[in-house]
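Lecture notes, part 5. Sequence design as translation. It can be helpful to think of inverse folding as translation between two languages: the language of shapes and the language of residues. The source text, in structure tokens, appears below.
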């Protein structure tokens, strides 16, 4: 069972544990978004059993989310770039993709900055080699920026079932 916590503004915030859900419910900080969840939670609260399946709850008051910066490691870069080569658009398995330094480190490019790192397929990385993209007629598909902890798509990549539940909610 997964519990998706939304801000009062409906922005996905996090996935929380049963225990945290019970605490938030008992403090009347959250509300359920559908009747079935409401019912299941009432049962959970009365101690009979835990809710089944996906539960979506919404905070009753908006909270400010601190923008926690993640490290631009390979895993996070693959998440940010949706496992897509940022030069040619090829979407591949993680093993088929490399991390490219836009300005090569040998030419003074930073090795640890979000704005100098992108996911590239092996072919593009080989073609680009020790060049800046513009020197070999290559272009980035979008400007690379930092990834922060609260980005909804990180949550949804890790929990696809929550993505479906959230999207269903927005289309009602
Ligand atoms: Zn490519």
């Amino acid at each position: 069972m997964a519990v998706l916590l939304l801000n009062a503004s409906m922005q996905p915030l996090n996935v929380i544990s049963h225990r945290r859900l019970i605490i938030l419910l008992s403090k009347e900080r959250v509300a359920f978004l559908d009747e079935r969840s409401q019912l299941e939670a009432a049962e959970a609260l009365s101690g009979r059993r835990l809710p089944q399946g996906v539960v979506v709850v919404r905070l009753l008051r908006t909270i400010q989310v601190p923008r926690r910066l993640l490290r631009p490691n390979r895993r996070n870069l693959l998440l940010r770039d949706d496992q897509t080569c940022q030069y040619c658009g090829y979407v591949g398995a993680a093993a088929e993709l490399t991390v490219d330094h836009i300005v090569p480190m040998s030419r003074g490019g930073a090795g640890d900055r979000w704005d100098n790192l992108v996911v590239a397929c092996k072919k593009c990385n080989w073609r680009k080699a020790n060049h800046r993209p513009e020197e070999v007629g290559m272009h980035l598909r979008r400007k690379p920026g930092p990834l922060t902890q609260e980005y909804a798509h990180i949550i949804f990549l890790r929990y696809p079932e929550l993505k479906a539940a959230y999207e269903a909610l927005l289309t009602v």
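The translated text above is only one of many valid answers, since several sequences can fold into similar shapes. Residues 85, 87-88, 90, 120-121, 123-124 surround zinc ion (CB under 6 Å).
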